[in-house]
Amino acid sequence: MASAAGRVGGSTSNIGLLMPVVGVVGLASAVLAGRRAMHVDWKDFAVRFLTGPGRTSRILLLIYVLLNTKSLPGAWTIRVFGSMIRHAVQLRKPLPPKALFHYSVTRSYTSPGETDYNLHKSNSTYFSDLDVARSQCVMHLMAPGFDKIRRNKQLRIVRDPAGAVAEGSLGVALGAVACSFKKELPPLAGFEMWTRVLAWDRKWLYTMTHFVAPAGKVRPASWDGGSFWASRGRVATVAAGEAELQGRVVASAVGKYVFKLGRFTVHPTYVLEQSGLLPERPVTGWRGGEADVHAEVELPAGAADLADWDWRRVEAERRKGMELAGHFAAIDDAHALFDGGRDGALGQFFPG
Ligand SMILES: *[C@@H]1O[C@H](CO)[C@@H](O)[C@H](O)[C@H]1NC(C)=O
C-alpha cells in the first residue's frame, strides 16, 4: 500500500507480490535470530550490560532507543507491513453489514524524535502514523476482498466496460491525504487514531481518521470483534456528550485509495462486495454505466435513520460522507496549477 501523498503508482503498491516476499524474509530473519538467541546467556548478558564499564552511556542509549522505537530507521516499514501482514495472514470472520462504516482504533504515542521546537508532536509526523492507521482499517475490512480480486483471472469478478476480465496484479495506491490540526500533542502522550470508511465514488475509496487523545478515554458502544485487546475489558458505552467527544479530537485527516488490476481501475464496490460488506442493491446494483447511478437514484425519506442496514442506509451514509470527500477530491486540480516558473522563481535555498 503506497504511503505518502503523491506516491501514487509507487513501487510498493503491489501487495500481491510484496506480501509473500516480506513474509518469507521476515520469517527467515526471525528463525535465524531465534537460533542465535538460544546460544546467548541472557542473565550474564544483562548483568554485564547494566554493570560493566561504560554502563551509563549504554543505559541512557537504551532508554533513548526505547522511547523512540517508532522513530528508528525501518520502524515505519515494520509498522505498515506488520498491519498488512497481520490482516492478510489472519482473514477476519464475516462482519455485520453495519460494520462497513465502523472505526478501527490504532494506538500510538508521541516519541521524542517526533517532537518539534514547540515541544509538541510535529505536524508533519501525523502522516506516517496515518499510514499505519489507514492500513489497519482498510486491510481489516477489505483483505478478504483483496484476496479474491487478486485472483481475478480465475474468479472473473472484475470486468472492463466491454465485458473482458481485467487482468494484472492488484495494486492499492494512496492518491491523497489532507490533515487538519486542532490541538497539540505533548511528548510521550498516548493517542488513538479512529479510522473508518468515509465514502466512495466510481474511482476512489475515502477514509477518515480522527486523532483522539488521551488514549483509552473514548470507548465505542461495542466492538465487532477481531481484536485481542478489544475483547478484553475495553467494552463500555460512550457516556460522554458531543462536546466532550469533540474536545478529544486533536486532528482529523481524509485519505483516498484507488484499487488497480494492472492498469485497470477497479470500482471500490467490487472490493467492498467481495469483502462481504455491501448489502444487495436491487435493480441498479452498486455500479452505474455512463451516469453515476449512485447519486441519481432518489432515496426514500428517512433512509439515513433506518435501523436495518440495507442498501438505502448504506447509500445514505455514503452520500453523507461524499459531501466532505467531494471537497477533498478537488485537491486533484492542484496539479494543473504548476507552470514550472514561466514567470520566474525566487531562488534555490539551502538547507533543504
Ligand atoms: C501544528 O498544528 C498546531 C495545531 O493547529 C499549531 O498550533 C502549531 O502551530 C502547528 N505547528 C507548526 C510548526 O506549524
Give a quick set of tags describing it.
six-stranded antiparallel beta sheet, alpha+beta, binds 2-acetamido-2-deoxy-beta-D-glucopyranose, 6 strands, Thiol Ester Dehydrase, Chain A, 352 residues, 36% helix
Question: How would you describe what is shown here?
Answer:
The protein has 352 residues and is an alpha+beta fold. It has helices spanning 15-38, 42-51, 55-67, 75-89, 126-149, 152-155, 242-248, 268-274, 293-296, 311-329, and strands spanning 104-109, 170-181, 190-200, 205-212, 249-261, 264-266. Strands 1, 2, 3, 4, 5 and 6 form a 6-stranded antiparallel beta sheet that branches. Strand 5 and strand 6 (264-266) form a beta hairpin. Helix 4 runs parallel beside helix 5 (126-149) and helix 5 (126-149) crosses helix 8. It starts with 14 loop residues before the first helix and ends in a 23-residue tail after the last helix. Mean pLDDT is 87; it is low at 1-14. Bound molecules: 2-acetamido-2-deoxy-beta-D-glucopyranose. 2-acetamido-2-deoxy-beta-D-glucopyranose binds at residues 116, 123, 181-182, 184.
Q: How would the blueprint of this fold be written?
A:
Elements: H1 15-38, H2 42-51, H3 55-67, H4 75-89, E1 104-109, H5 126-149, H6 152-155, E2 170-181, E3 190-200, E4 205-212, H7 242-248, E5 249-261, E6 264-266, H8 268-274, H9 293-296, H10 311-329
Helix pairs in contact: 4-5, 5-8
Bound molecules: 2-acetamido-2-deoxy-beta-D-glucopyranose.
Residues 116, 123, 181-182, 184 line the site of 2-acetamido-2-deoxy-beta-D-glucopyranose.
